[in-house]
Amino acid sequence: MKRKIDLFPYTLLTPALSVTVLIIFFPIVQTAVMSLFNYVIWKPKDTRFIGLGNYLQALRDEVFWISLKNTIFWIVGVIVLQLLLGFVTAMLLNREFKWRGLARSLILIPWVTPSVITALMWRWMYDGNNGVINDLLVRIGLLKSYFPWLANSSTALPAIMVALMWQGFPFFAIMILAGLQAIPRTLYEAAEVDGATRLQMFGRITLPMLTPILLTSILLRIIWVANSMDVIFVMTGGGPGYATHTLPVFAFIRAYKGLDFGYASTIAIFLTLLLIAIVAGYVIRVLRSQEALR
Amino acid sequence: MKRASILILLLLFPLVLFATGQDEGQMATIRFWYHFDNPDAAVTPLVQKFEQENPNIKVTPEFIAWDVYNQKLLTAVAAGNPPDVSQIKLWWQPQLVEMSALLDLSDYVADWDGRDDVFDKIWELTEYTDGNQYLMPLQMVILYMYYRTDMFNELGLKPATTRSEFLDLAKKLTRDTNGDGTVDVYGFGIRGARGGHDWWGTFVLSSGAEFFLPNGNSGLITPEAVAANQWFIDLYRVHQVSPPTTPNDGFQQIIANMQSGKTAMTIHHIGSSKGLAEALGDKLSAAPVPKGTKKYWTSFGDEENGVLAATEFPDAAFEWAAFLATAENNAIWQKSSGQVSINKSNATAGGNRFLKATTDSADFAGVLPAHPGTAEFVESLWPTQMQRAFLGEISSAEMMQIFADHFSK
Amino acid sequence: MRRRMPLWRRLLGLHLPVLIIVFFALGPYIWMFISSITPEADLYGEVFRYFPGNPSFQNYPKIFQKISFARNLRDSLIVATTTMLVGLAISLTASYSFSRFRFRGRNYLMIQFLVINMFPIVLLLIPLFVIMRVLKLIDTYFALIIAYSTFTIPFSTWMMTSFFNAIPKQLDEAALVDGCTRFSAMTRVIVPIAMPGIAATGIYIFITAWNEFLYAAILTGNKVLTIPVALQNLIGEYNIAWGLLTAGGVISVIPVIVLFFFIQKQLISGMTAGAVKT
C-alpha cells in the first residue's frame, strides 16, 4: 500500500520535468558556461576562458550598478502598482451586479494586447509633441505646456511603470478573484452574526485566506517583471542615457548590439542571483505556509 | 513492464523525426530574407520572373520584420542555419565578415556583365577593407534636408548652404506662433534616439571630426572635433532650436513633428518623402544639407544583398543577387522599397524635388568606417552617449573620448 | 439576512469605481481604435484632434486581404489553445502531487521550477534555436508549443498548487473512504471544486502564449505566423503602417475577450461551502 503512493507523485511529475530539463535547463547551463569566457561573437579568435573576469568587470562597470538600481526600483514600483489596482479590481468584481461578466472580460484587455502595441501606443500617448496625455493634462490645467515624459531622465522610468501597471493589473485581478472564490461564505455569515465590521471581516477572513494565493502571485509576478524588457526597449531603448536601463535591457543590448555574449551572460546570471535573493525569503515562507494549511 | 515500454517508446520517438530526411534533387533552392516597409509590397513578381529565366533555381522568399532582422540573422548564423541570400546593412558587414559568415563574391562580380551598370561609387563604398567584395548592391538613398516651404516663405528665408547660415535659420524659425508665450515651432528636429547618428555626422564629421586620422589615431578627440561636437550639443542645450523631446525622438517622432508643423526642418531621405508629401503637399521641399566648416557630409544610406557562406548553392545564390542588381529588375524592386536604383541606366533626368536633392548630394555622401565596432556604435553607443550629452550628464570631450576608446579596441 | 444597500451607495461604491477601472483598461484601446480609423495623413495634424474629421474603416478589410490576418488569428488560436490544454494537463497533475503528497525532493523540485524561470529568456534564444533546428522543428507549431510550455508549466504549477492547497484535504480522504482511487479522487472531487483556480491558470497560459513575441519571431515566421509577429511585420525601418497595426491590435484582442467571457462564469464561489461533512 505504501509503495503505491510513493510512486504516484513521481509519475505525475515526469512529463513536466523531462520537458523542462531538456528545453530550459541545458541552455541555462550553456549560458552560465559562456559567462566564464571572453566571448564576443565578432572576435572569434579572442575567445578564451577568463574565469570570473566578466564578473569582476561587471562589478566595476557603472552601467551595471545603474541598471541594478533601476531594476530594484522597477520591480518594487511595478509590483506595488499592479497589486494595489488588481486587488481593488478583484474585490469589486467579486460582488454581484448585472454587468459583472462584461466588466470582468473588458479589464482583461491590457493583459491581452501584444506588448509591442502596448509600448507603441503608450509611447505615442506620452509623446511630448503630439501626445494625448499631454493634451489632456494641459486642458485640465495641471500642466502649462507639453512635457517630454520619455526624454527626461527623472520621469522616463516612472512613466513606463504606469504603462506596465496598465498592462499587468489584470493578472492580479484574475488570480485574486479566483482565490476569493475559495473562501466559504459561511465564514462571512458567521462573522456578520457576531457583529463584525466590513473592515474586520476583510482583515480577519479575506486577507489570511488569500495569503497563499497572494504570496504565490506576487512571487511569480516579481520574476516576470524583473525579466520583462520589451516594453522598455520599444518605448525608450534603455534611454535617455542610462535612465531606463534595467538588467535585462542591459543584457540584451550587450548581447545583440555589442555581440558580447560572454558579458551579457554574466549580467543574466547576476539578475538570476538577484531574483533568488529577493524571492528566497518569500519561497521559504510560501513553502511553510502551504504546510500550515494542512 | 508496461511503464518501461512506454518510457522506451518516448525515448525512441525523437528518432522518427530524424528519419524524414531531405531529398536533394537537381533543383537549387535559395532561401532569401528581405524586408520592406510597405506590407503590401510583394517580391513574388520578381521571384516568378527569375524562376522563369532560371528553371533550375527555386527562390523561397521570407519576410523578416525590420525590428528583429539583425537579431534573427545573427541567431541563424550562430546556430548554423542562415538563409542563402539576405539583405545586409552596410554597417553589419564588418562583424559578419569577421565571423566568416559572408561568401566572398569578388570572382563572381569580376565576371558579371552587369557590373558596369552600377554606380562606381557604390562598388567603392561596399568593398571591404580586405579588398574583397562580399556584397551585391541593391538600393540606395542619400540623406538630405527637408524644409517647410510655407514657413520659409513666411519669414523670407532660403535653405542654408553653410553651418552658420543653418544655425541662423534654425533660430529664426524657432518661434511662438500663437502668442501664448510658449514656443510652438522649432527650427530643426534632431533625432536623439537610435539612428540619429546621421544628423550628428552632418554637423560633426563635416567640421573637423574624423573617425581615424591617416596615422591611425582617433580623429574624434582633437580640439576641433570636440568643438564640432559641442556645436551640435549646443543646438539643443543652448540655442534650443530642437524640441525638448529630442533625446528620445526616433524616426516616427521626427516625421510626426514635420507633419504636424512642430519642426521646420529635419534630415531624412526619399524613403519618407511619399508619406510626408501626401500630408503636406507643396508645403514641403528638400535640399542638400549645409556644408560644415571643412566639407559637406551626409549619410549614404544603402542596403545590399549578401550571400551567406553556409549556402549550399553559391552559384544560384549569386544569380539571384545579381538578378536583383540588374537595371530592369532593380527598378521593379525600388517601386516596393521606395528607394533609389543603383543602376546608371535607371538614373532619370527628371524626377521630383526629392530625387533632385538626392542626386545633388551624391558627390559628398559618405559612410561610417568599415570597422567591426561600427554596428554597436550605431545601435547603442551613439544614442546612449548622445542622450547623456544632451541631458548634460557628460561633456563633449567625454563623449568623444568614449567613442575614440570604442574604436581603438 | 443582508440588507440590500441603497441605490446611491451601490452606484458610488460599486458601479462608479468599476466604471473608472474599466475605462482605465479601455482607454488606450479606444485610442488604438480611433487611430485605426484615422487616415494616416491626418494622424499628426496642426491641431490635436480627439476624433478624425473623416474617419474610414478601410483598414479592417485591408488587414484581412493584404496580410491575411485571418491566417494569423488561426495560427495564434492553434498555438495558444494547444499550449493551454497541454499546460493545464501537465501542471494539474504536478500541482496535485505537490499539494497532496509529502515526498522526497518535493521542496527542491518546487524551487527548481521557480529558478528555471528566473533566467532572462533573451539569452536562451541561440541554444533553444539550435535544439529546435536539430529536432527539425523550426517554423512549426510544435516549436512554439514546446517552447511556451517550458515557461508556462512551472508558473502554472506554482499557481495551481496554491489553489489546491485552499481545498481541505479531508475532501480527498472522504472520497477515498467512499471507494475512489487516488486518481478518480483527483478528477471527480477535487478538480470540480478547484475550477476557479483552473480557469484562472488556464487563461494565464492562454494569454501568455497568445501574446508572446520573441520566441515566435525567431523560431517561426513564415509557415507559422502568429499575431504578434504579423503585427511586428507592419513596423518597418522608415515607416509604421499605423492604420493596419492599430486595426490588427483592435482585432487581436477580441477572440480572447470572448473566450474569457465564457470562462469567467467559472469564477464563482460557494463550491467549498458545506462540502465537508462534519
What would you report as the Rg of chain C, rounded to the nearest angstrom? 23 Å
- Category from helices, strands and their pairing of chain C: mainly alpha
Inertia-based shape of chain C: globular
Per DSSP, what share of the residues of chain A sits in E-state strands of 2 or more residues? under 5%
Task: Give the strand tally of chain A.
Answer: 2
Number of domains of chain C: 2
- Count of DSSP helices of chain A? 13
CATH superfamily of chain A: MetI-like
Largest sheet of chain C: none
Round the Cα radius of gyration of chain A to an integer and report it. 23 Å
Question: Biggest β-sheet of chain A: count, sense, barrel?
Answer: 2 strands, antiparallel
Estimate the mean pLDDT confidence of chain C: 84
- What's the helix-strand series of chain C? HHHHHHHHHHHH
Spans of chain A with pLDDT under 50 lasting ≥5 residues?
1-5
Estimated structural class of chain A: mainly alpha
Which chains make the largest contact? A-C, 105 and 106 residues
Count of DSSP strands of chain C: 0
Domain unit count of chain A: 1
Word description of this protein:
With 294 residues, chain A is mainly alpha-helical. Chain A has one domain: MetI-like (MetI-like fold, Orthogonal Bundle). Chain A has 13 helices and 2 strands. Chain A has a two-stranded antiparallel sheet with strand order 1-2. Residues 1-5 of chain A have low confidence and may be disordered. With 409 residues, chain B is an alpha/beta fold. Chain B has 2 domains: 25-141 and 301-348, Periplasmic binding protein-like II (D-Maltodextrin-Binding Protein, domain 2, 3-Layer(aba) Sandwich); 144-300 and 366-408, Periplasmic binding protein-like II (D-Maltodextrin-Binding Protein, domain 2, 3-Layer(aba) Sandwich), CATH 3.40.190.10. Helices cover 44% and strands 15% of the residues of chain B. Chain B is built from 17 helices and 12 strands. In chain B, strands 1, 2, 3, 4, 11 and 12 form a 6-stranded mixed β-sheet that branches. A 4-stranded mixed β-sheet of chain B has the order 6-9-5-10. Chain B has a two-stranded antiparallel ribbon with strand order 7-8. In chain B, α16 (374-390) runs antiparallel to α17. The model of chain B is unreliable at 12-24 (pLDDT under 50). With 278 residues, chain C is an all-alpha fold. Chain C has 2 domains: 1-56, no CATH class; 59-272, Orthogonal Bundle (MetI-like fold), CATH 1.10.3720.10. Chain C contains 12 helices and no strands. Chain C starts with 6 loop residues before the first helix and ends in a 15-residue tail after the last helix. The model of chain C is unreliable at 272-278 (pLDDT under 50). Chains in contact: A-B, A-C, B-C. Chains A and B meet through loops of A and α3, α4, α11 and α16 of B.
